[in-house]
Amino acid sequence: MTLLRVQDLNVHYGAVQALRGLSLEVQEGEMIALLGANGAGKTTTLRTISGLLTPTAGTIEFDGDEIGGVPAYRLVSRGVAHLPEGRDLFPSLSVEENLKYGHWTRRRDRGDFKRQLERVMDYFPRLRERRAQAAGTLSGGEQQMLGVARALMSSPKLLLVDELSLGLAPMIVTQLFDILRDVNRDGTAVLLVEQFVHMALGNSDRAYVLAKGEVVMSGPSQGLLDDPDLIASYLGEAEVSHASAKPKGDGASSQRRSRSRVREARS
Questions:
Q1: CA-to-CA separations, 189 to 2, 17, 60, 131, 194, in angstroms, rounded
Q2: Fewer beta carbons within 10 angstroms: which end of the chain, N or C?
Q3: Residue-number span of the structural domain to which 169 is assigned
């Protein structure tokens, strides 16, 4: 069943158009990767879905309701949680106090807070050990764990994650993706923006690739992962090298072959 349906979405920053007719879908229980070079519109897409930006055209339907332009604080109670790039924690507050702010839409149910707290602590045992510690004193990896945990405190149906791996060591990134996959298996749909292409495609069901605010390709993640030329055309050869898959031939010919295949797929 379709949980999120975005159709023909346009978003502007003043006179600058950031998204151009963008469409995507997330089914219940799916993990979807949103990929693209810097400035492609990935963060803008998440911010618009979560209510931080208002679309200038198009529709966003979540769980059967139109939510385009609905304020972010109302969408949290409807089941949309957003982990932004940079985490936005309260550094002087403890781990547990940060988690309380993640539960604010359900704050009247104290029993639910305790249940949710234990649930997220099961995902992140390290946070249980540090529940009284100030968030600003945690390591970068622990802060990202706290960011994910705080987003989960509202028991979302859809979790939006912007750059889970930013600034973290590869081993910590792997651990975080393992946890995110567990969260997804337990029933929470995930739409994630991620700079590490191989990690994103290896842990997602489907993917959308953006360029200049438009979806330029989409499909099963494994199929995109198996076609490095196609990825290189839109993400750059450096990303493909990180994914341990080198494009064949020179960069220009790789891009020509890739774009030709995109045109064939669309026709």
A1: 11, 28, 16, 27, 16
A2: C
A3: 2-88+156-226
Q: Please check whether residue 44 is in contact with residue 53, taking contact to mean a CB–CB distance below 8 angstroms.
A: yes
Are the C-beta atoms of residues 34 and 176 closer than 8 Å to each other?
no
- At 196 the pLDDT is 87
Residue 261 lies in a domain: no
pLDDT score recorded for residue 208: 96
Tell me, yes or no, whether 132 lies in a domain: no
Q: Rounded to whole angstroms, how far apart are CA atoms 54 and 68?
A: 7
Rounded Cα distance between 39 and 33, Å, is 16
pLDDT of residue 260: 37
Q: Please, what are the averages of pLDDT over each run of 10 residues along the chain (267 residues)?
A: 97 96 98 94 97 97 96 93 88 95 78 89 94 95 94 95 90 93 96 92 95 94 84 58 38 36 35
Which among 3, 49, 41 has a CA at the least distance from the CA of 184? 3
Provide the domain count of the chain.
Answer: 1
CA 234, 239, 245, 247 torsion: positive or negative? Answer: positive
Q: Which of 91, 86, 118 is nearest to 103 (CA)?
A: 118
The DSSP secondary structure of 22-82, one letter per residue, reads: EEEEEETT-EEEEEESTTSSHHHHHHHHTTSS--SEEEEEETTEE-TT--HHHHHHHTEEE
**Size (the chain), residues:** 267
Structure tokens at 11: 């978003």
CATH code at 25? Answer: 3.40.50.300
Cα 129 to Cα 89: distance, rounded to the nearest angstrom = 18
DSSP annotation string for 226-237:
T-HHHHHHHH-H
Q: Is residue 71 part of a domain?
A: yes
In a domain? residue 114:
no
Q: How many CB atoms lie within 10 A of CB 169?
A: 12
